[in-house]
Write a structure and sequence with these properties.
By secondary structure, the chain is an alpha/beta fold. Helices cover about 30% and strands about 20% of the residues.
Length: about 180
């Protein structure tokens, strides 16, 4: 009889649907939502994540507003949110624990949204998964792809001011509310 402790098996998770308006110019891709984000059904739902603080500084979206208002304001600024990974097995929330990822149909998203001018990858893990997902076809897109500093609370090596400076690239070409009417 084995009396040693065994760790629980990784759980299977499915990510969130993309958040987008009709004419996104910037597609921000994370790797995969944290457990906290999944339980809230909100991108960057961990209050310690710097994403909404950065969005406030760069895009003037008040981070204290209700989530639905914040994502509507992102859409008004022509910014879409999604993740590279559609589903995976994972223990906890760490990207390093992601196993057997199934990737989102990013080429399909880009075909449906030809207005995208920039893809911003939220951290090096998103960058690694992006390259795994796109493989040799990554060169087929003429859309610039930038790996930005992770907004995760696990990325403590950069001060928030430096993260904000790096993320300012999402302001252009987007940044301005869309003209209505």
């Amino acid at each position: 009889m084995d009396t040693g402790s065994t760790s629980p098996a990784p759980e299977h998770f499915t990510g969130l649907a993309p958040v987008t308006g009709t004419t996104p110019e910037v597609l921000i891709l994370g790797s995969f939502p944290s457990r906290q984000s999944l339980s809230k059904c909100e991108y960057y739902g961990n209050p310690r994540n710097h994403f909404w603080q950065i969005a406030e500084a760069v895009l003037a979206i008040d981070r204290t507003l209700p989530y639905t208002t914040r994502v509507a304001q992102l859409a008004d600024r022509r910014i879409a949110l999604w993740d590279v990974i559609h589903s995976c097995f994972r223990k906890g929330s760490a990207d390093l624990r992601i196993r057997d990822p199934v990737y989102n149909d990013i080429p399909g998203f880009l075909a449906a949204h030809p207005t995208v001018l920039l893809i911003a990858l939220n951290g090096t893990a998103a960058g690694r998964f992006w390259h795994a997902a796109t493989g040799p076809s990554a060169h087929l897109t003429r859309i610039p792809v930038l790996v930005l500093p992770s907004t995760s609370p696990a990325n403590a090596r950069l001060p928030i001011a430096e993260k904000i400076r790096s993320w300012e690239v999402i302001r252009t070409p987007a940044g301005k509310p869309s003209k209505k009417g």
